[in-house]
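User: tokens in, sequence out, please.
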């Protein structure tokens, strides 16, 4: 895997071996960013189930100012740290080594782009978006990008957000919520 485009474009990304994480393929990541961007003029990213960190690193590569990555798995945290070092801009990234639910209680400020790719899909996505809205962690122009199995059906509206775009890429479905 590699960073698809932007300042870090072409640089390799490490991923975790095994089934504890499901890294988003270069092809799906590229298509996802073409769907939502493809480039940004600043902003703050939250990746609540970071895995290898590829999505948030790609977002910063494409113009986001900073990213908060949340990951509970220790082996994945080590991979994320390596991938952040690869950017040579460590100060743009903050890794929270904890469960997503725990992280939501610690976060402050607002996020312009949120990635949700939880291991248990729909139930976590609804709860996470609801809590992000209740805690006022989303900017007015926020995009919440959810990656699920293509068979998962997410609600048309969650809290203050509604589906803006939805596309299927192979076995994955990408659903984007906005205000």
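Assistant: Sequence out:
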């Amino acid at each position: 895997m590699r960073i698809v485009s932007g300042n870090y474009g072409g640089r390799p990304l490490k991923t975790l071996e095994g089934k504890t994480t499901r890294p988003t393929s270069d092809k799906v990541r590229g298509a996802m960013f073409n769907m939502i961007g493809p480039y940004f003029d600043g902003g703050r990213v939250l990746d609540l189930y970071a895995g290898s960190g590829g999505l948030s690193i790609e977002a910063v590569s494409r113009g986001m100012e900073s990213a908060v990555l949340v990951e509970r798995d220790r082996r994945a945290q080590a991979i994320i740290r390596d991938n952040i070092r690869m950017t040579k801009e460590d100060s743009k990234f903050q890794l929270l080594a904890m469960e997503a639910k725990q992280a939501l209680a610690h976060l402050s400020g607002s996020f312009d782009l949120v990635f949700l790719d939880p291991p248990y899909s729909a139930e976590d996505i609804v709860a996470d978006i609801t809590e992000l809205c209740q805690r006022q962690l989303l900017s007015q122009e926020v995009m919440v990008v959810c990656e699920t199995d293509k068979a998962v059906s997410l609600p048309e509206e969650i809290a203050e957000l509604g589906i803006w775009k939805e596309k299927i890429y192979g076995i994955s479905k990408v659903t984007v919520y906005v205000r």
